[in-house]
Amino acid sequence: MSGHSKWANIKRRKGAEDAKRGKVFTRLARDIMQAAREGGGDENANPRLKLAVMKARENNMPKENIERAILRGTGKLEGVELEEITYEGYGPDGVAYMIDVLTDNRNRTLGEIKNIFNKRGGAMASAGSVKFQFDQKSEFILAEDRGYDFDEVFLVAAEAGADDVQNEDGVITVYAPREAFSAVEQALTNAGYKIAESGIKWFANNETELPVDKALANMRLQSDLDELDDVQSVASNLAINDEILEAFETA
After folding, report:
1. What does DSSP say about strands 123-125 and 96-103: parallel, antiparallel, or unpaired?
2. Torsion angle of alpha carbons 88, 164, 27, 68, nearest 10°?
3. Does the pTM exceed 0.85?
4. 230 closest CA partner among 91, 110, 141
5. Whose CB has fewer CB within 10 Å in the chain, the N or C terminal residue?
6. Which of 180, 174, 183, 177 is nearest to 148 (CA)?
7. Burial class of residue 250, CB neighbours in 10 A (0-12, 13-18, 19+)
């Protein structure tokens, strides 16, 4: 999961840039809607919604926007019908991709994703032709400014059903089976840990190693997909090492 972890680090560093482009509120609203849709509109009974709302407040999202997103997610506000879809594709040199979206217009979203694959030398794939190369896992990234003790986090997470905890550059990430999402999230929250990001995401079973130039072509593709407002998460089986990471960030 090292490649996925390095990509997550890139996304966190890009957060300020996303805010400047005015996209952050759209993403936050969709996170709130999805959480409310899945677990209801009560923050106290829905840890995922509580986290999404907390992130929105930290980014100074207006209260009325938060309330509207919750109402839309629970179906109590007319005008938006959200749909969860997973698309599959291949990038340059056969790198596999899984793209989870939350959209109110599947034709628009599909068109945007197709355009990016075509622009970056990839192609959409039929349903099921890529999926077998991935597994879904729960992921929890803890706030990196709290100085949490790794061993203590490991014990709490493991007792709740987590199967892996990693510390990369001071960022502690907890991984768990898909079905253990609620149990692990509740255990971490009850133990006083602040979760910066969480979700159920795709992880490659095996990673594809490419030369730097070919890896960069795929990272540009993944970055473009991740910029789309409707895209919730993007996963690939590209192996990302420090040389590739540095080349991408300085390009």
Report:
1. unpaired
2. 120
3. no
4. 110
5. C
6. 174
7. exposed
Q: Tell me which residue of 197, 249, 241, 200 sits closest to 223, measured CA to CA.
A: 249
Residue 184's identity, in one-letter code, is V
Q: Identify the bridge partners of residue 177 per DSSP, sorted by sequence position.
A: 137
Instruction: Tell me which residue has tokens 């992130």.
Output: 55
Contact between 3 and 209 under an 8 Å Cβ cutoff? The reply is no
Has residue 13 got a pLDDT over 80? no
In the chain, DSSP assigns E strands to 83-90, 96-103, 123-125, 134-142, 164-168, 171-177, 195-204, 231-236
Element containing residue 186 per DSSP (H, E):
helix 181-190
Q: 217 pLDDT exceeds 90?
A: yes
Other beta carbons less than 10 A from residue 135's beta carbon: 13
Tell me the per-residue pLDDT of 52-96, one tens digit each, with 9 for 90 and over: 898 899 888 899 999 988 988 888 876 667 788 999 999 999 999
List of domains in the chain? 2-73 (1.10.10.200)
Percent of the chain with pLDDT over 70: 90
Beta strands 134-142 and 195-204 are: antiparallel
